[in-house]
Each structure stands twice: as C-alpha cells, then as structure tokens.
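Protocol step 4 of 5: obtain the predicted structure for the target chain.
Materials: sequence only (see below). No template structures provided, no constraints applied. The aim of this step is simply to have a reference model before the mutagenesis design in step 5. Sequence pasted as it appears in the construct record:
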Amino acid sequence: MKRLWRFGRLAALLLLGGCAATGTSQFVNRDAGLGNQPLSIPNPADKILLIYNHGSRSELRTDPCHPNQSYLPGGMPTVVRHLAGKTVNGKEIVVYALCSRLHGVKKLFDTRDNLKIRHRVREIRRAVARFRKLGVPPEQIFLVGHSAGGWASLMIEAETPDLVNGVIAFSPAFAGFKSTRNRQWWGFRKLLEQELKAADHIDALVFAFPGDPYNSPEELAFLGTIPGVDFRTPRSGGGVLSCYHGHRGAFKACFEKAQAKVLLQFIQKMDSRAAR
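Step 4 output (structure tokens):
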C-alpha cells in the first residue's frame, strides 16, 4: 500500500491525460477533485464508492492491473468504469480501482490458511478501512470484482456483512483452470465453497457465464442458494462465439449494453434499503 502514496499523483496525472497507469490503485474519474495523494474523497457522505478488485494469477506470480483497459489481464470491464459519475438516489458513484500489491505469495507449500485469495481478502479489507476512515459510510461502499477479485469480495461479505453494503461479482474464481486443477486445489475450491455456503446471508449480484474454463454456471449455482444472492447466467445464441461466453463475458460491449441497468438497479436497491 505504500506505493499507492508514492505513485498516487502520477496516477491522477495519467488519468487526466487519458493514459493508463499500470499497477497503480486509482480513481476512475477525470475530475481532479478526486485526489490520489493523499487519498481523499470530497463530501464522502454524498458518494457511493465502488471498489473494483481485479483477477489474480497463480499463487507465486504478481497480479497485473490495468484500470483503464478492458482487453488486458487485470483490466476493468467498461460496464464498471462507465458507472463513475452516474447518480443514484442523489449520490454520485465513484469507482476506485484497487491494484493488488501482492508480489506473489512465497511459501514452501499450499495450505488452507496461506492461499493467495486469503491475502487478497485482507488487502481489500484494509482498503475499505481507509475509505471508512475518510468518512465514506459503510452502507455506501460496494465491492466489485472479477474472477479472484469477485470471489474475495464474496468472502468478505460472507464473513463481515456489515463492512460494506454489497458485492457485484463477475465470474468468481480462484483455483485455476478446471482442466489442470489438481486434487489438492479441488479440495481448496470445495473448502472455500463451503465457507460461502455457511453464510447466513450475502448481499450480492453475481454473474456466471457458459464456457468459463474456471467455473461453469452449474458449478457456481450454489451461490444462488445463499439468501441475498441474485445469481444470473446471461445467455445468448451463437454457440462458442456468442456474446455471453467465457471467463471474460462481463468485459464485452454487449454485456454492458444489456446489463448496465441491472448493475445500477442493484446499487439503487441496496442504497435505498440501507437508507430506511
């Protein structure tokens, strides 16, 4: 997190210039009023904050992060980026891309407690704590994530439901390709599935896609049995090359065209419920 402070001003300048800052946490907004160094949000009580969490590589590799790109690994779906600046219930949506600072997880062997996904959970929690300290109410913070970022966000909501308002997860995953997943990692996958199932309630909007080599919609369907989870599997014709297909289905323009309103409706519903 120390690098966030060091490169924060650079990130802001790159955003204003329309360039991409690789690997640097930053606001997705061209408004210079949103400062990165020091991290600040003017009038935090009037904002809805979306913290976007990208996917992960394998345990020993550093994760890429490209907040201003959709086509690169570690990028952000345009449907999320374009939520910045929109208004819900009189509050402006602010999108913050949290770039993981984990430079791989060094360990002699994998255990249920030292998995990279658990380090991601702790990292995201620290970011939430910083924003809450800045004055953003917890009921106005949402976690948004793709792949491991989505799975980690769901874990946080399951473990501490009052930390944020809710979660939007695209193709949640963490245990690698099904085709190359060994017996140990199938065990880890089952273990973390059971941890999510044990939750009394998870406020989340989850999207799963046919043809995802990490988890099929059927393998993620257990999420739909958890109270509070709105589990969706968008489908369209066209076979293998159809729009709603694969692990990066949420990154496609047709997904944004069809589902952007669904994301906004979820945020509005959750914000309205919290205001009662």
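Step 4 remarks: The longest helix spans residues 253-275. The CA atoms of residues 236 and 244 lie 6 Å apart.
Proceed to step 5.
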